[in-house]
Design goal:
Low-confidence stretches: 1-28, 509-548
Number of strands: 27
Radius of gyration: 41 Å
Shape: elongated
Largest sheet: 4 strands, antiparallel
Structural class: alpha+beta
Oligomer: single chain
Strand order of the largest sheet: 13-21-20-14
Strand content: 25-35%
């Protein structure tokens, strides 16, 4: 009986020891192998050591790099490979967990795990994750493809009054939440075959409301310039560029980018070939004339006292505004940008009429009614242009043509003047502009000239005097050329005489009809004609000096 009791005590003690030991984790040796039936993700690691399992998983993950995942947003989807997203696996943690299967827990749990593995495999987490920063950057780059932009509440100006236009909700990708959704999908849901991942999106409400936009009532600044003497192509470019700006609404804090708004300068975007400044010369390019649009807008904006954040002057003077009042657009290095620094929205109205471009900036006037601002251009210094002569042996001897007219260079500055009740309160330097001089370029033909005549012409060119060069070039002309020019001149004069006779005949008929007009009418017409002649003179000057920019 005592022996039985002693045996029972011994067995109980041994059981307790075993139970105690069974509750402690068992440290695996380097040679310990993973139980059969254990998988890390899609990788069968049964029978492998921890090191072998790590290598197997690393090889598998390396093979995943070209796997493409479809990331679905509201309006579309984009594709990214595992490599694009910087997918990695924590192979050490996964292999450690695999080795521990069947070696941790109580004897009963170990036994159960061993028996379960004979029937069904055990799939462990591969601990996949993405590089969150890399994935976020790529998502941001493609976010426009995945989102539906909200249409802000807006305004239209009709018959001199503003009408409220209701906008629409938008949907945009939540970059941060989407990155975590991608990470969680790969870590917890991905089975190696389903490669579609739904991105997290947020509803975007349209900006502005009827009450806020109702503040836009007052004219804050306006400006106009004349382009009536422009070529058809340039005139179209001015009108087209103006139309792309018309109706712009800037909420407080918003910025405006001129180049971004009116580009690209292509035929498809409504632009035609016209003259533009390039490297001190005038060339034909799509969008020539867009700088007059920028200049007109610039002057309206500064009178509204919005914040100018970027402005460049032209390389050479333009004729449609005074020096330092211009704003140039060129490539990606010259632009006009400004910011709505006011507490209410602003509305930009732009239109063309009768060869004149107009810009009006509307908003909520908060400036005192007795405060007046103006801008004054000051020319600090001028640089006279040179005359360059090109001798061209491919053109007939004595040929004379002007390839480019001269442009005077100057340094100018713009002053902002503030008056209160008519008394000047301040006079501040607003900008400073440097315009380069551009030479007059004359091409002279020398084809067939002998050494003596060519030397004489070169000597005249060396003098730099245009009249001297012209005389020398004329002396090179053959008798046949002179006769041809005289014949051409006579033909032109005959044609003009014929046209004058027609006009005189029409004038006589018209005078017969007007004989009954009184002296008062004659006086009025004389005044009108005087005004018209003055206007024509200004336009003529503008046409001769104006670059198409």
């Amino acid at each position: 009986m005592k022996k039985l009791k002693r045996l029972g005590v011994l067995l109980t003690a041994v059981g307790a020891i075993c139970l105690l030991a069974g509750t402690q984790p068992v440290k695996a040796t380097e040679k310990a192998t993973i139980a059969e039936g254990v998988y890390i993700g899609n990788v069968n690691v049964g029978g492998m050591t921890q090191a072998q399992a790590q290598s197997a998983v690393e090889e598998y993950v390396a093979g995943l790099m070209d796997t493409t995942f479809t990331l679905k947003g509201e309006s579309g989807s984009v594709s990214m490979t595992a490599q694009d997203m910087g997918v990695t696996a924590d192979v050490n943690a996964a292999a450690t967990e695999a080795v521990a299967v069947g070696r941790a827990g109580s004897l009963i749990n170990r036994y159960k795990t061993t028996q379960d593995l004979k029937k069904n495999s055990l799939v462990l987490d591969m601990h996949l994750s993405v590089d969150k920063q890399t994935t976020a950057q790529k998502l941001y780059k493609d976010s426009d493809k995945l989102s539906v932009a909200a249409v802000d509440n807006g305004l239209v100006r009709e018959n001199g009054a503003f009408q409220f236009v209701k906008g629409k909700e938008g949907v945009e990708v939540n970059i941060v939440d989407s990155v975590y959704a991608i990470n969680d999908f790969l870590a917890d849901e991905w089975n190696g075959t389903n490669n579609e991942i739904a991105l997290v999106t947020d509803v975007v409400e349209p900006r502005g409301n009827e009450e806020e936009l109702a503040q836009v009532q007052d004219l804050l600044g306006s400006f106009s310039t004349d382009f009536s003497t422009s070529s058809a192509g340039r005139a179209k470019n001015v009108t087209n560029g103006c139309s792309k700006i018309n109706g712009t609404i800037l909420y407080p804090g918003d910025s405006f980018d001129m180049a971004k708004t009116v580009s690209p300068f292509t035929l498809e975007n409504g632009y035609e070939l016209a003259g533009a400044y390039q490297n001190g010369t005038t060339v034909e390019s799509f969008g020539g004339g867009i700088c007059q649009v920028a200049t007109t807008l610039y002057n309206a904006v500064i009178r509204a006292e919005l914040e100018i954040t970027m402005r460049f002057n032209h390389s050479m003077l333009v004729s449609y505004v005074q020096p330092s009042m211009d704003a140039a657009i060129a490539g990606n290095y010259k632009d006009l940008r400004f910011k709505n620094n006011l507490d209410a929205p602003i509305y930009i109205e732009g239109y063309c009429s009768g060869g004149v471009i107009h810009f009006n900036v509307y908003g909520k006037e908060t400036r005192p009614s007795n405060r007046e601002i103006s801008f004054e251009s000051e020319t600090v210094s001028t640089t006279d242009p040179e005359t360059k002569f090109n001798l061209d042996s491919s053109l007939p001897i004595g040929h004379w043509s002007v390839g480019q007219s001269a442009h005077t260079g100057c340094v100018a500055q713009l002053w902002k003047i503030v008056k209160v009740d008519g008394e000047q309160q301040s006079r501040d330097l607003f900008n400073k502009s440097n315009y380069q001089a551009s030479p007059k370029i004359i091409t002279i033909g020398t084809k067939g000239a002998n050494k003596e005549t060519l030397a004489a012409l070169k000597s005249a060119v060396a003098s730099g005097d245009e009249n001297t060069v012209r005389s020398a070039a004329s002396a090179l002309k053959t008798e046949e050329q002179v006769k041809q020019e005289e014949d051409d001149k006579k033909d032109q004069e005959d044609s003009e005489d014929s046209e004058d006779k027609k006009n005189d005949s029409k004038k006589d008929d018209s005078q017969k009809d007007d004989t009954k007009k009184d002296d008062s009418d004659k006086k009025d017409h004389a005044s009108d004609n005087k005004s018209d002649n003055k206007s024509d003179g200004n336009n003529s000057k503008s046409d001769s000096e104006e670059s198409s920019n």
